[in-house]
Design goal:
Number of domains: 2
Order of helices and strands: HHEEEHEEEEHEEH
Strand order of the largest sheet: 1-2-7-9-8-4-5-3-6
Shape: elongated
Radius of gyration: 40 Å
CATH superfamily of the largest domain: Regulatory factor, effector binding domain
Strand content: 15-25%
Structural class: alpha+beta
Number of helices: 5
Helix content: 40-55%
Length: 265
């Protein structure tokens, strides 16, 4: 646009060749040149405004992108700080939750031996080993709790009970019932309420999103450790214990193996 203005200005300044201009004609041509220059200047001005507007939009877009990146970083830092604050040690995995009472009898680098006192638990059968089967069983127990007006986010653990007897394994899900709740039988025949007696378990904790497969892997690790430590235990039963929601970012999981009668005595 600037080049066009220069060319047009040059054309207006050039003398006519071949004949002499009359004053009126020269004035008319000068007037036309001035008008044409004004039109081009106006267009150039509009073009400059458009360019300035586009530049401003570009700058705003860049600023917006930078602000978005900064907000993402801030949110990430807040979440990291929050979850770091929520990390639990082995000793406080039941922090702010109601868990069954137990007494630690023995502890080494791999496992510990616990005496659990008698407590009420709700139990339902798990139809398969998939996550959907476990979640369906959990929903039945949750429905029982909600039907009695009991909290469902402050009492843990939830147990996956596994019995192996040579054929297909039997699975059931149990949820701890804290003391102080009014006990009544379930109207759902698939959910049972039972008072489990005092018992001793060998316990090993592990991390990760809980699953039947992960629990079995750690049960085998605990079994090998118990054999090495010359401990007597039930080789056909193990229990997976979860202390958080399945969708939690952090998980403290445990595998329990019952001690046999001769060890209890």
């Amino acid at each position: 646009m600037q080049a066009a203005l220069r060319i047009l200005a040059a054309q207006c300044a050039l003398p006519s060749f071949g004949e002499t201009r009359k004053e009126e004609e020269e004035e008319e041509e000068d007037k036309d040149c001035v008008e044409r220059l004004q039109v081009h200047r106006h267009r150039a001005k509009i073009s400059s405004r458009k360019a300035a507007g586009r530049l401003q939009l570009c700058r705003l877009s860049v600023k917006s992108a930078r602000m978005e990146q900064m907000m993402i970083k801030i949110i990430a830092l807040v979440l990291v700080s929050y979850w770091v604050g929520q990390v639990k040690t082995d000793e406080d995995f039941c922090y702010k939750k109601q868990c069954p009472e137990y007494r630690q009898l023995e502890k080494n680098e791999v496992f510990e031996k616990r005496l659990y006192y008698a407590a009420y638990w709700t139990t339902t059968k798990v139809d398969g080993t998939g996550s959907a089967d476990v979640m369906a069983a959990h929903a039945r127990l949750k429905g029982y709790f909600q039907g009695h007006g009991w909290a469902t986010d402050k009492n843990y653990p939830v147990l996956v009970n596994v019995t192996e007897r040579g054929g297909p394994s039997d699975y059931s899900l149990s949820w701890f019932v804290p003391p102080g709740n009014q006990i009544s039988e379930s109207s759902d025949p698939s959910v049972t309420l039972e008072l489990k007696p005092e018992a001793i378990f060998y316990v090993m904790f592990f991390h990760g999103t809980p699953s039947v497969e992960l629990c079995l892997q750690n049960a085998n690790i605990l079994r090998e450790a118990l054999v090495t430590a010359v401990k007597t235990f039930d080789p056909h039963t193990y229990i997976g214990a979860g202390y958080e929601s399945y969708f939690s970012i952090l998980h403290h999981n445990e595998v329990w193996i019952p001690a046999t009668a001769d060890v209890i005595s």
